[in-house]
């Protein structure tokens, strides 16, 4: 899969799952997330890496509240 990174423009809900316990978390505006599995089709949830944590986000939230950025931009934060 090609590298896909997104800068979140508006705070967005994500779900962090550990040992079967799902916890809602807010991804703040300005954060960079990297798509772990895709593609961004439909309205399903996808896994993204955010500060070393894999969380689930709705594809629509990434499309509507995020801006795709280059790998170089993602490394800079």
Report on this model:
- The protein has 2 helices and 7 strands.
- It has helices at residues 59-65, 71-76; strands at 5-8, 12-18, 21-27, 32-35, 45-50, 53-58, 66-69.
- A hairpin with a 2-residue loop joins strand 5 (45-50) and strand 6.
- The longest helix has 7 residues, at 59-65.
- It is globular, with a radius of gyration of 12 Å.
Secondary structure elements and pairings:
Layout: E1 5-8, E2 12-18, E3 21-27, E4 32-35, E5 45-50, E6 53-58, H1 59-65, E7 66-69, H2 71-76
Antiparallel strand pairs: 1-4, 1-7, 2-3, 2-6, 4-5, 5-6
TL;DR of this structure?
The protein is 17% helix and 49% strand. With 77 residues, the chain is of the alpha+beta class.
Placed side by side, the strands forming the largest sheet appear as: 3-2-6-5-4-1-7
Radius of gyration: 12 Å
Please give the number of β-strands.
7
Q: How would you sum up the global shape?
A: globular
Count of helical segments? Answer: 2
Overall mean confidence score, pLDDT: 88
- The percent range for strand residues is over 45%
Low-confidence stretches: none
Helix content: 10-25%
């Amino acid at each position: 899969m090609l590298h896909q990174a997104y800068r979140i423009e508006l705070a967005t809900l994500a779900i962090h799952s550990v040992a079967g316990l799902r916890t809602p978390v807010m991804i703040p505006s300005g954060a960079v997330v990297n798509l772990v599995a895709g593609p961004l089709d439909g309205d399903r949830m996808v896994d993204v890496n955010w500060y070393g944590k894999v969380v689930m986000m709705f594809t629509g939230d990434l499309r509507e509240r995020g801006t795709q950025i280059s790998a170089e931009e993602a490394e800079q934060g």
